[in-house]
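Incident log, support desk, overnight shift.

02:14 A customer reports that sequence design results differ from what the structure should imply. Their input is reproduced verbatim below. On-call engineer (initials T.W.) acknowledged and began investigating.
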């Protein structure tokens, strides 16, 4: 299936979420997390879902309502195939889907691939919509990029890590096919220079958590038999000058945060390669897909 194309999307689509290019500000820590859940697939088909399997979303008055309703409509009309790869996160992944030929970029995976990133999202937002954009896909491999907006909003690095680990626990618990989750490092964009220390701390905490993660501690007895694993994919070395360590500013648009479409050539292959290795590690056959979905 072909990925959605078009001009590079602006962050959050006039959603009301503050711009990430604004100066970092303090924000209250996300409130208590509420568990949700569901299940289903990843490949393109023209057969609509049965009523019993329909994904539902009740408008909540949140800035992201329109984006989630769009995802729900697409997936109810064209249910994804099971045991594929699911990309989730914020604007960096969203623009990968909207501003490039995402399907061509992920074709080496040889699996059904779906991208459900929405711009402006935080790690707490990702927890709130798992019922709609994660559980119905029942992916084998999940690729996660989020935390950038948390850092700008003043969310403590430990909360970012804990939100991600909670997201992983729910994904493994509710997606029977899930075996691997990849966390793509929060990128050290020039716009984030005032909060690089906090960003680096969040990345370090999550990398440490991935290395020490044990399914039996976070999901439950018996889950470890599925071979569950978390991995940290560090793309920041690709985004800085190897001598000075300074960001490669030519990769970024004027906001110093989002990338020119061609800049994805610098780091996207590393993410795809990590996802391919994750699929190979799973040991059983892949979903025989042909590329990325919208």
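02:41 Re-run completed on a clean worker. Output:
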């Amino acid at each position: 299936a072909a990925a959605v194309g078009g001009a590079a999307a602006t962050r959050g689509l006039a959603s009301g979420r503050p711009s990430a290019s604004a100066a970092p500000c303090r924000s209250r820590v996300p409130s208590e997390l509420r568990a949700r859940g569901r299940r289903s697939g990843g490949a393109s088909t023209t057969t609509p879902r049965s009523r019993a399997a329909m994904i539902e979303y009740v408008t909540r008055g949140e800035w992201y309502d329109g984006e989630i309703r769009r995802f729900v409509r697409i997936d109810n009309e064209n249910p994804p195939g099971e045991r594929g790869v699911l990309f989730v996160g914020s604007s960096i992944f969203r623009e990968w889907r909207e501003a490039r030929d995402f399907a061509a970029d992920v074709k080496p995976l040889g699996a059904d691939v779906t991208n459900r990133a929405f711009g402006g999202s935080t790690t707490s937002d990702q927890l709130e919509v798992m019922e709609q954009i994660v559980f119905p896909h029942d992916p084998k491999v999940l690729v996660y990029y989020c935390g950038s907006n948390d850092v700008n909003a003043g969310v403590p690095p430990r909360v970012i890590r804990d939100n991600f680990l909670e997201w992983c626990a729910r994904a493994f618990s509710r997606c029977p096919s899930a075996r691997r989750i990849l966390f793509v490092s929060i990128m050290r964009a020039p716009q984030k220079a005032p909060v690089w220390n906090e960003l680096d701390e969040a990345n370090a905490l999550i990398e440490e958590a991935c290395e020490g993660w044990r399914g039996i501690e976070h999901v439950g007895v018996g889950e470890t038999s599925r071979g569950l694993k978390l991995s940290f994919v560090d793309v920041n070395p690709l985004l800085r000058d190897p001598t000075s360590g300074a960001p490669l500013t030519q990769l970024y648009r004027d906001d110093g945060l989002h990338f020119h479409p061609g800049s994805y050539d610098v780091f996207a292959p590393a993410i795809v390669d990590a996802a391919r290795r994750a699929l190979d590690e799973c040991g059983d056959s892949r979903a025989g897909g042909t590329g990325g979905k919208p």
